[in-house]
Design a protein that fits this description.
This protein is an alpha+beta fold. The chain has three helices and four strands. It is globular, with a radius of gyration of 13 Å.
């Protein structure tokens, strides 16, 4: 399956139906070489192998404790949340 820009989508999960919390969320995040998190008008980069797990989870999990949407896994990069500038730089 491909999106409108021709990016191949190998798996899509409906966040309202399938919750990804705690250890399951960390497993996705920790497997990345680069983690980019967008929130509001800013985005931040993390290295899950070096940066503090609790600090990363604090910005990647929503109020309910679920992994924030959208979350994109692209090779060894994981992008969490949405920010126009972040998507232009890391997704397009």
């Amino acid at each position: 399956m491909f999106d409108e820009k021709g990016i191949e989508i190998t798996e899509a999960v409906e966040a309202r139906k399938q919750k990804i919390e705690g250890d399951a969320a960390w497993k996705i995040l920790a497997g990345a070489d680069e983690l980019i998190v967008g929130r509001g008008k800013k985005f931040t980069s993390f290295d899950p192998k070096k940066d503090d797990k609790e600090a990363i989870l604090k910005v990647c999990l929503g109020r309910t404790g679920n992994l924030r949407a959208p979350t994109l896994k692209m090779g060894k990069r994981v992008v969490v949340g949405f920010n126009d500038d972040m998507y232009a730089e890391f997704v397009a």
